[in-house]
Amino acid sequence: QAKHAGKSAYARFTPDMTEVSHERLQMESLMRKALEQGEFELFFQPIVDTTSGRVMAAEALLRWNNPVLGLVMPDRFIPLAEETGLILTIGEWVINEALLEAAHWRREIGLELQVAVNVSPRQFRDAGFLDRISRALEAANMPADTLELEVTERLILDNSIETADILKQLDQRGIRLSVDDFGTGYSALSYLKSYPFNTLKIDKSFVHDVLKEAEDASLVRAIINMAHSLGLRVIAEGVEEEAQSHFLQTEGCDCSQGFFYGRPMSSQAFSHWLQTNGRANKDRFNV
Ligand code: C2E
Ligand code: MG
Ligand code: MG
Ligand code: MG
């Protein structure tokens, strides 16, 4: 068969690879319909003040409920959504929905929480991005500093003037900016000095072994100290145990997020969670 490889490119594909690309095509076409069909849903996970335990914010995490594929987690469809450009419409929906939910917490529960939204590099580079954010804030009638955009170091890696400019404009409009999965990328630390970030989120891989591996403890401690000396707030991700929470408290980590405090929940479950766990926050906001 290989002899005829020049004649047909298919000869190089194994059945497995055909299946993979078939699955991609199927995913893509299902994803195109998902927005109209209302299959996307935002879950919310609390972000708490490490010392007081009070809820300060929530991160919006996307879920896809598809009748054929079942519940699809973001790591399985976001990369494809980025490749195909579908992330632009999906991402716009996410921002609108997250802000409407924050308006609901304020109006119905009396809590002024920030809402953190994950944003892909592709969204940032899109020309209409800033306008869409402004419109979403207006539609929800929420102040700009309600919204915190989470980006990864991947965005900074592209090192473009456009990215730097958009970050600056977002900052000037009062929107908060956060570096997600901090420590897993390859970018030079100098960007922290030149870009207007408010928050660093320590990646959960460091938090996971913070009590077992001295190196991880040193890294977490160093990140907290560095962030504070640059005037940044620090959030530890992936806090699963009380002992990890204690360590973070001792080290002065501002906020924590993880299964120990609360799992990502449907909007309804999160509102319910706030009713019982969020009251203490009522007269306190804006760290
Ligand atoms: P991320 O932004 O770093 O989100 C945190 C991930 O850690 C979430 O996974 C969350 O469920 C999980 N997590 C939270 N607490 C714990 C814990 O204590 N232990 C462990 N082991 N995991 C914990 P999820 O929801 O599967 O999201 C995965 C990634 O998908 C996110 O990572 C984010 O990069 C991306 N993503 C999610 N929603 C969106 C979105 O709306 N837009 C874009 N562009 N990306 C999104
Ligand atoms: Mg995130
Ligand atoms: Mg993260
Ligand atoms: Mg991540």
From TrEMBL:
Protein name: cyclic-guanylate-specific phosphodiesterase
Entire-sequence positions represented here: 515 to 801 of 801
EAL domain segment(s): 24-278
